[in-house]
TrEMBL record:
This is Phosphoribosylformylglycinamidine cyclo-ligase. Pathway: Purine metabolism; IMP biosynthesis via de novo pathway; 5-amino-1-(5-phospho-D-ribosyl)imidazole from N(2)-formyl-N(1)-(5-phospho-D-ribosyl)glycinamide: step 2/2. InterPro entries: PurM-like_C_dom, PurM-like_C_sf, PurM-like_N, PurM-like_N_sf, PurM_cligase. HAMAP family: AIRS (MF_00741). Keywords: ATP-binding, Cytoplasm, Ligase, Nucleotide-binding, Purine biosynthesis. It comes from Tenggerimyces flavus. It is an enzyme of class 6 (ligase). The gene is purM.
Amino acid sequence: MSAGKGAGASYAAAGVDIEAGERAVDLMREWVEKARRPEVVGGIGGFAGLFDASALKTYRRPLLATSTDGVGTKVAIAQALDKHDTIGFDLVGMVVDDLVVCGAEPLFMTDYIACGRVVPERIASIVKGIAEACVAAGTALVGGEVAEHPGLLNPDEYDVAGATTGVVEADEMLGSSRVEVGDVAVAMASTGLHSNGFSLVRKVFADAGWAYERHVDDFGRTLGEELLEPTRVYAKDCLALARGPFGVHAMAHVTGGGLANNLARVLPGQIDVELDRSTWTPPRVATLVGELGGVDPLELERTLNMGVGMIALVPEEHAAGAVEFLGERGVDSWIAGRAIAGAGEVRLASDYAESR
C-alpha cells in the first residue's frame, strides 16, 4: 500500500524544533557561566553536570542535603504578562531555602523547563533569572533540561522545576533536637507572596474581575507587577546567621501551608512557639486577597506566608544581635515570639499590626 505523496512524518512536523532548542542553549550559556563555583568542572552541553567533591574532605562528617520543588501556578502570571526573567528567583528560592534551614550550604543546582514550544529568547530569559538567583544564593547552576511537549502543553505554556544539593557538618545541623524553651523566634520579612497560594490568589482576582494590567494604588504599581515580585532568596543571609555567634537552633522556610504549619515542622513534641501577630503587618496583597475573596482568616494564614518568609529560633540572649545582624545585611527582621512548653504546636496570638 502506497504511503502517498508529500513529506513523511518528522520530529519537526510533530511540533518539536531541535534547532530552536540548540539556539536556546546558546543564548543561555552566558547566564549559566555566571552561576559557577570554583568546584564546577566543565560547562553546559554534556550529559551531566560535574562538581568536584574533593572539597568535602575538609569536613569531619559531611551530610549531603537535597531539595526539589517548582514554582506552581505563578508561572501562569509570568506567561500572561510575557515576563519571564523573574520566575527563576521563585524557583531557586523554593529549593535552596528549603535546604539551608538545616544549616546546609547549597553547592549546585539543576533545572528542568517543560514547554509547549521552544522559544529560545523566552527560555534564555527564564534561565537568566535562575542563574542570577543562583548567584544570590551562592550556588552553582551545573546543568538542566529543556523539554518540548507539543500537544501536552500549549505553545506559550511552560513549567519549571529544580533540584539542589548541599552539605552540612553533621554536628552543626540545625533542627528540632536543638530547640529549647525560652528560644526567641526571629521572623524575616517576605517580599510579598513569594511562590505559594497562587491557585487561590489567581482565582480571587479573576472572580473579582481584576486584570493583571490594573493599577492598584495600594501597591503603587499594577496587580501583575505585584504578583510577579520575586521570591526573596535567604540562603546567604541564613547561612551567615547560622555560622555567626548567635547560637541558631532551628530555621523554617515559610512556603505552602503557611507560617504556623512550616514552623511546627522544626519543633520537638514537647515545645510550642507562640507568635505575636501584632509585631508585624502582612503585605497589602495578602490582606486584599482575603477581602476580595471573603477568605476565612485562618484559611488565608494556612495558604499565604502573611509577610514572613523565613523564621529562626535562637537563644534569647542572641535575639537582638541576630535582628541587628540581619538588618545590616538588608533583611528586615524582628522578634515575633518565643518557645514555651507545649506539644509541638505554633500558636498565633493578637491581631496583626496596622503598621510596623
